[in-house]
Amino acid sequence: MECVADDLFKALADPTRRTILDELTESSGQTLFEICSRLSMRHGLGLSRQAVSQHLAVLEAAGLVETRREGRYKFHDLNTAPLREITERWLAPGESAPEESTP
Amino acid sequence: MKIHLTSVFVDDQAAALRFYTEVLGFVKKHDVPLGGEDRWLTVVSPEEPAGTELLLEPAAHPAVKPYRDALVQDGIPLAQFAVADVQAEYERLRGLGVRFTQEPLAAGPVTTAVFDDGCGNLIQLASEPQ
């Protein structure tokens, strides 16, 4: 469990990786090329493709990004499920996990 | 010096000529038999008939497949074409069944998108500088 948390916090500790998550939030299912384009054209981050690949590997190890092969292409999808562990971990005494709001 | 000609490898020259002319709207410039089934086949933009030619080159060389497979997997385009309105062209091509690996993405003054030419390559659309 603590291993999983280590991977998650390590992944979130880097500003470039958080930017990648921001961009995937806007549109999930991006190729490596699109992620590189967004980082350079929108954020002025001049990273090599190899460096971006390494960031994606860290995000994937943390479960925040999943890759999907579709024909000849490989897409990267956002998965925010691991973030729930953070919000549920440090609940104040007597407080229950956030639930779906009811009308 | 001028950039007079550039090329993309295509799986099937006849199919590529159909796609590049009937779908993308380029016009055939040269079509010369090269022996066997191979042709020296080029297209140009109707907006620039004397402009840079695009050679639709046979993809039979064994180095082509691993090279293109690796690039396509990562979504990397092999050529870029300019259009006045990327969003409109995206919708037009989508309507004709063209598969996009990147939907129109606005970044500052430039909008880009990436599609599959069905001949083995990804191609980038970019908005013309205003």
Give a topology summary.
The complex is a heterodimer of chains A (103) and B (130).
Chain A (H helix, E strand, L loop, with lengths): L1 H11 L2 H12 L5 H12 L5 H13 L3 E6 L2 E6 L4 H7 L14
Antiparallel strand pairs in A: 1-2
Helix pairs in contact in A: 1-4, 2-3
Chain B lengths: L4 E6 L2 H11 L3 E7 L5 E6 L8 E6 L5 H10 L5 E5 L2 H10 L4 E8 L2 E7 L5 E6 L3
Notes on the protein architecture:
The complex is a heterodimer of chains A (about 100) and B (about 130). Chain A is mainly alpha-helical. Chain A has helices at about 1-10, 15-25, 30-45, 50-60, 85-90, and strands at about 65-70, 75-80. Chain A has a single domain (about 1-85), classed as Arc Repressor Mutant, subunit A, CATH 1.10.10. Chain A is built from 5 helices and 2 strands. Chain A has a two-stranded antiparallel sheet with strand order 1-2. In chain A, a hairpin with a 2-residue loop joins β1 and β2 (about 75-80). Chain A starts with a helix and ends in a 14-residue tail after the last helix. Chain B has a single domain, classed as 2,3-Dihydroxybiphenyl 1,2-Dioxygenase, domain 1. Chain B has 3 helices and 8 strands, in the order βαβββαβαβββ. Chain B has helices at about 15-25, 65-75, 85-95; strands at about 5-10, 25-35, 40-45, 55-60, 80-85, 100-105, 110-115, 120-125. In chain B, the strands form 2 sheets. A 4-stranded mixed sheet of chain B has the order 1-4-3-2, covered by helices on one side. In chain B, strands 5-8-7-6 form a 4-stranded mixed sheet. The radius of gyration of chain B is 15 Å and the shape is globular. The interface of A and B includes residues 30, 33, 42, 72 and 74 of A.
How many distinct helices of chain A?
5
Low-confidence stretches of chain A: none
Calculate the mean pLDDT score of chain B and round it: 96
Percentage of residues in helical conformation of chain B: 10-25%
Q: What do we call the CATH homologous superfamily of chain B?
A: 2,3-Dihydroxybiphenyl 1,2-Dioxygenase, domain 1
Strand content of chain B: 35-45%
Assigned CATH architecture of chain A: Orthogonal Bundle
Protein name (chain B): VOC family protein
Pfam family, one (chain B): Glyoxalase
Domain VOC (chain B): 2-128
InterPro entries (chain B): Glyas_Bleomycin-R_OHBP_Dase, Glyas_Fos-R_dOase_dom, VOC_core
